[in-house]
Write a structure and sequence with these properties.
The protein is an all-alpha fold and 336 residues long. It is 80% helix and 0% strand. It has 3 domains: 128 residues, no CATH class; 93 residues, no CATH class; 60 residues, no CATH class. The longest helix is centred in the middle third of the chain and has 46 residues.
């Protein structure tokens, strides 16, 4: 097959993928705006009617119907139900009645099959032999994409919870000083604060309402956010529950510890900011140089993908690059 024709097909594939990514991002942005619109519509002078749905709302409803249908089929498998429990932490308090853990597994299968369909189209354009290994690899990549998106979202949520946890402890400590009990203190936190920390304390409040002990409740909180600070709170409450003591003094000690830790972390962050910037620049530069060289001479990197020795060299380059990132991140990382 002529190289020019292959290059044209490659450009068509890249443009198709870019259009799909832009469409997905656009739909996600409109989904967020729709959710915000629903929240404020109750307080607007002219509320939206239930039967008035925009195009994006209809598309969202159709998509979730498909996901729910796939989830109902997958829910028949005990293995998949157990596998889906790992996604429980991604369900917010507001979504607890509308979202299921199995729905996230359904999304993974749906994305995998969509990528397989895209792979079929590209194979048809190239007029090459169908490869079942290619189908399997494409499905596995699509199956893992939602996990990557959820991991990025969870990292942002975790950072936000870690940032706001000190505020929650201060509010609870002040509530205890004014004579409030633990339920009232948690209710104040979930009402006064917003974002992920409010969602987590809403779940804590619900767990306590169901009769779970403070030790179990904050242990579940730690399992959801995976923060050392949450583990510290759990350990303190466990010790308080077993040995007794003044909860006001305990939370005052927690507040002081968190404040000193946050202060030290901010100081270390300012000290290592320049080193972190240099590290990010050095990670980003090889890709820039590769793109520039490819633009000037598209056949420059061809031996890396067409010869056995080139494949070995390319694998070594990737391995060394990954090792460089891991080592430098370990050097720059300071645990407090």
């Amino acid at each position: 097959m002529p190289e020019g024709f292959v290059l044209e097909i490659f450009i068509v594939q890249v443009l198709t993928i870019l259009v799909l990514l832009i469409l997905i991002i656009w739909l996600l942005m409109n989904t967020k705006s729709i959710k915000k619109e629903k929240r404020i519509s109750e307080f607007a002078l002219v509320a939206l009617k239930d039967n008035e749905k925009s195009f994006f709302e209809k598309m969202e409803d159709l998509l979730w119907k498909i996901i729910t249908g796939i989830g109902n089929l997958l829910n028949k498998s005990t293995l998949l139900r157990n596998y889906a429990m790992r996604y429980e932490r991604h369900i917010t308090y507001e979504e607890r009645n509308n979202r299921r853990c199995i729905d996230y597994v359904a999304i993974k299968f749906l994305v995998g099959f969509c990528l397989v369909g895209l792979h079929v189209l590209t194979v048809m354009f190239q007029y090459v032999k169908v490869s079942y290994v290619g189908f399997l690899v494409t499905f596995l990549v699509g199956f893992m994409i939602p996990d990557i998106v959820l991991a990025i979202s969870f990292a942002k949520k975790r950072a936000r919870v870690e940032e706001d946890l000190l505020k929650a402890i201060i509010i609870m400590n002040n509530a205890f000083k004014s004579g409030r009990n633990i339920m009232q203190a948690i209710e104040i936190v979930k009402t006064e604060l917003d974002g992920p920390i409010s969602d987590e304390f809403s779940k804590i409040y619900m767990d306590i309402t169901y009769g779970l002990s403070l030790e179990v409740v904050f242990g579940r909180f730690y399992d959801r956010v995976q923060l050392d600070d949450a583990k510290y709170i759990t350990s303190s409450l466990t010790l308080l529950n077993r040995t007794g003591g003044n909860i006001v003094k305990v939370f005052a000690s927690i507040e002081k510890s968190f404040y000193n830790k946050k202060k030290l972390k901010n100081e270390l962050k300012s000290m290592t900011a320049s080193s972190l910037f240099v590290f990010r620049v050095l990670v980003f530069l090889p890709f820039v140089f590769a793109l520039v060289i490819f633009a000037l001479n598209p056949s420059y990197f061809k031996p890396l993908f067409t010869t056995g020795m080139g494949a070995v060299i390319f694998a070594l380059i990737v391995l060394i690059f990954i090792l460089y990132i891991v080592v430098i991140r370990k050097v720059l990382r300071i645990d407090i």
